[in-house]
Specification:
This protein is mainly α. Among the domains are: 160 residues, Rossmann fold (3-Layer(aba) Sandwich); 79 residues, Helix Hairpins; 173 residues, no CATH class. It is 57% helix and 5% strand. The strands form 2 sheets. It has a 6-stranded mixed beta sheet with strand order 2-3-1-4-5-7, sandwiched between helices. α7 packs antiparallel against α10, α15 crosses α26 and α20 runs antiparallel to α22. The radius of gyration is 30 Å and the shape is elongated. It binds guanosine-5'-diphosphate and magnesium ion. Guanosine-5'-diphosphate (GDP) binds next to α1 and α4.
């Protein structure tokens, strides 16, 4: 077994190459910083199996970011048999900067010139043979995306790994080379591996290096006193960086022959698009508009708002096959059409199963368990799969095209004022998919306090599992009260989640989590047409995950819910009509009063506990909220028949009819579920990422408080608009206190608090 490492700049295509080498489906994103941790897989077409490690993307091997440290330690300590240095050929000079550092390590290196398809499309040419001669390392042209040149690359890498290699440096002609050589000899005397690499880093007075070789560092410090360069004085790090860039531009750059461009086309279409999309003022409205368009395409029942323009009563399609395509007011959006299709299929299955069981003479409780408990719960959730996938398809397109990286860039300007860098936005956007990877991704944030604040607000970016809550309840509101549009409500809730995140960050960063905002340096990836393969991979992963979860955690939860809702405390089986005497109802009724300020507590009728119970089951997995409605809907329908089918939206409609819950309370219910303690998996991840117990405990309290405050505000203001003045006054007081405290005019003494430093 040989070990090869993939190293290169962020966004140079490492993960794409990794996936095509190992056949895995790691996340590829068109923005820097997607791969935070290293990842391994096996390539089988060499004479022996080769283990491939995908390292996080880095611009250099200095110790400034966690990624740089991970990659550097791997290359130096794990001693791979070969390093494949991926170079984005459309950005040759900048990428080769890292190459000049990697080649100083005593390890075989092969350079993969990636994105050759893009280079050729631009009409540029690269002379790989010439580059190979100048660098003295094998250079292979590839396109990771089109899977071209990959076997050739692996062949050369395998050849290279069979013999050893000593590090070489491009700093030979520079003013510091004598010092580097002296350091190298000193290190070799101490039997240090990779002496050239360490010597150069020592001369740069790199923190990690100085700490591990204090003796030799002293020698450099002594020399520094006697030395001065014309431009950089005695800043050795700068002198060395300059030396690398100069060498690259005078020796390597010639290999790239650019197509002659007329003045006009100097501005690439990417630049032109950026002029609009990252505009100072219009950038954010455009983002919000794009987001709305996505929600409209996914959830609208009045696609393109043409309903109003249509003559009254033009759709008389009730009961026909076309009913699913044409909604009441106009034409359904693609998302809704898919939803209706699946919903119809599932209702048919439920019906068939229930008929079969009835004619087979199954016991009442068995039919209830299978049809209402299991199928009701599962189908309530599964029916949302098409819309979830469609939404993710759009998000993937935004991400893969390179637009999301722009959004991070636009938001940086605003976030910075609130104490977050735009970098923190990437994990937040990942939170739209799932909080778990998003929280892990916060490792790219250098400032610990910023990282903690980000982890706390990630759950407010509504994840895929929360989507059914939004959709089902929005659908229920539209059906039962006839107000608003489903797409507007879901969109509004997403924006509300983001707004809550922003407000929370402001509060956190001005109270318990103060800290510097690190500068945000990110190059914007060039726009490209999203790759079909990539998109399908994302969707497939999402669908697999969702379905797997439905048939494991959610299935188990619905069965449990069904049982404890059909047995009393004395373990007697209860028929549907009597579930108000069940164990589940007992628990729900006990905690119900706590939710009264949010409108779904004691003021609801005798069925009100179902909302409370649903929210609690959401702590296991957020899909459970709607699955619980689905499971219990049949019992409730026993009194309040709203519709035959029990899937998704219908079960919410039943709940609304049974409890007489109001619109503000329903919105508060969504908001509560969106911002409260996330699912079990996300909580476990937060615990691991936050480190200390105290942080974790405070985070849980924080989530509870935020959801309670947001839910209460929505319900109270929604029900009695004048309460807005009370909230405004309270908030003004809170803000004044914080400002006064921060100015030192007010000292708040907290009990038992030790001094931080
Ligand atoms: P990483 O950050 O280095 O892991 O890069 P990724 O593998 O995530 O890829 C970054 C972006 O570059 C993605 O949008 C890929 O689709 C794109 N990409 C990767 N390889 C190629 C290639 O050979 N040609 C082109 N045109 N795009 C590529
Ligand atoms: Mg990657």
């Amino acid at each position: 077994m040989k070990y090869f490492a993939l190293a290169g700049n962020p966004n140079s295509g490492k993960t794409t190459l990794f996936n095509s080498l190992t056949g895995s489906t790691a996340h590829v994103g068109n923005w820097p910083g997607v791969t935070v941790d290293k990842r391994e897989g096996v390539y089988k077409k060499c004479p022996e199996p080769v283990s491939i490690v995908d390292l996080p993307g880095i611009y250099s091997l200095s110790p400034y970011t966690p990624e740089e440290v991970i990659s550097r330690n791997y290359l130096l300590d794990e001693k791979p048999d070969c390093v494949i240095n991926i170079v984005d050929a459309t950005n040759l000079e900048r990428n080769l900067y890292l190459t000049t550092q990697i080649m100083e390590i005593d390890v075989p290196v092969v350079i993969a010139l990636n994105m050759m398809d893009a280079v050729e499309k631009n009409g540029d040419k690269i002379n790989a043979e010439e580059l190979e001669k100048k660098i003295g390392l094998p250079v292979v042209k590839i396109s990771a995306l089109k899977e071209k040149g990959i076997d050739e690359l692996m062949k050369r890498a395998y050849q290279a790994c069979l013999s050893s290699r000593k590090g070489t440096t491009v700093l030979e002609g520079g003013s510091l080379i004598h010092l580097i050589r002296d350091c190298k000899i000193a290190l070799e005397g101490q039997k240090v591996d990779n002496s050239l690499f360490h010597a150069v880093k020592l001369v740069e007075l790199d923190e990690l290096e100085v700490a591990s070789h204090p003796e030799s560092a002293k020698m450099v410090e002594e020399f520094k006193k006697t030395f001065s360069d014309d431009t950089f004085g005695s800043d050795f790090e700068a002198i060395i960086a300059d030396g690398r860039y100069k060498y690259i531009s005078s020796n390597y750059s010639g290999a790239l022959v650019k197509k002659k461009r007329t003045d006009k086309s100097n501005l690439t279409s990417s630049d032109k698009a950026d002029k609009v999309l990252t505009h100072k003022i219009w950038g954010i409205p455009i983002f919000l508009l794009i987001l709305f368009a996505i929600f409209h395409l996914t959830f609208s029942e009045n696609f393109l708002f043409i309903g109003a323009a249509l003559p009254e009563g033009w759709v008389a399609l009730e009961g026909t096959a076309a009913e699913g395509i044409f909604g009441d007011g106009g034409i359904n959006s693609p998302g809704v059409i898919l939803f209706n299709l699946l919903d119809w299929a599932m209702s048919s299955i439920s019906e068939a199963v229930s008929n079969a069981m009835a004619s087979g003479g199954a016991a009442e409780w068995a039919t209830g368990l299978v049809c209402d408990g299991i199928l009701g719960g599962l189908f309530a959730i599964l029916s949302f799969l098409p819309q979830i996938l469609l939404l993710f398809l759009f998000f993937s397109i935004l991400e893969d095209s390179g637009y999301m990286a722009r959004v991070a860039f636009i938001l940086d300007r605003i976030f910075r004022k609130f104490g977050l860098s735009g970098r923190a936005f990437m994990p937040m956007i990942m939170g739209f998919g799932c909080s778990v990877p998003a929280m892990i991704n916060t490792r790219t944030l250098a400032d610990e306090k910023e990282r903690m604040a980000t982890i706390r607000v990630i759950p407010f970016f509504s994840c895929g599992a929360k989507l059914p809550i939004l959709t089902a309840i929005a659908g229920g509101i539209v059906m039962q009260f006839g107000v608003g549009n489903a797409d507007l409500i879901t969109y509004g809730m997403y924006v509300l989640g983001m707004a809550t995140a922003v407000v929370s960050v402001i509060l956190l960063r001005s109270t318990t989590m103060k800290g510097e905002v690190p500068p945000f340096i990110m190059e914007l990836p060039s726009y490209h047409v999203p790759q079909f393969k990539n998109l399908m991979r994302h969707l497939w992963d999402k669908a697999k995950h969702f379905v797997r979860k439905a048939f494991t955690i959610i299935l188990a939860s619905t069965i449990l819910i069904w049982f404890i809702s059909h047995f009393s405390w004395s373990w007697n089986y209860l028929p549907d009509e009597e579930i108000n005497a069940s164990i589940l109802a007992g628990i729900g009724q006990l905690v119900q009063p706590l939710f009264t300020p949010m409108g779904f507590g004691s003021q609801l009728g005798s069925w009100g506990w179902v909302f409370v119970v649903a929210a609690i089951t959401g702590l296991i997995a957020k899909e459970n909220v709607i699955a619980t409605f689905g499971t219990l809907a049949a019992c409730i329908t026993a009194g309040f028949v709203a519709d035959e089918g029990l899937e998704g939206i219908d079960s919410v409609v039943n709940m609304i009819a049974a409890t007489q819950i109001t619109v503000p309370a329903l919105i508060a219910f969504i908001a509560f579920n969106m911002t409260t303690i996330p699912c079990f998996a996300a909580v476990a991840t937060a615990k691991a990422e936050l480190g200390s117990k105290k942080n974790f405990r405070n985070t849980i309290i924080f989530w509870l408080c935020v959801s309670y405050v947001v839910g209460t505000m929505i319900y109270l203001i929604g029900s009695w608009w004048w309460t807005v003045f009370i909230f405004a006054a309270v908030w003004a007081a809170v803000i004044t206190l914080i400002v006064l405290h921060n100015k030192g005019k007010l000292s708040i003494k907290l009990p038992r608090r030790r001094k931080a430093d």
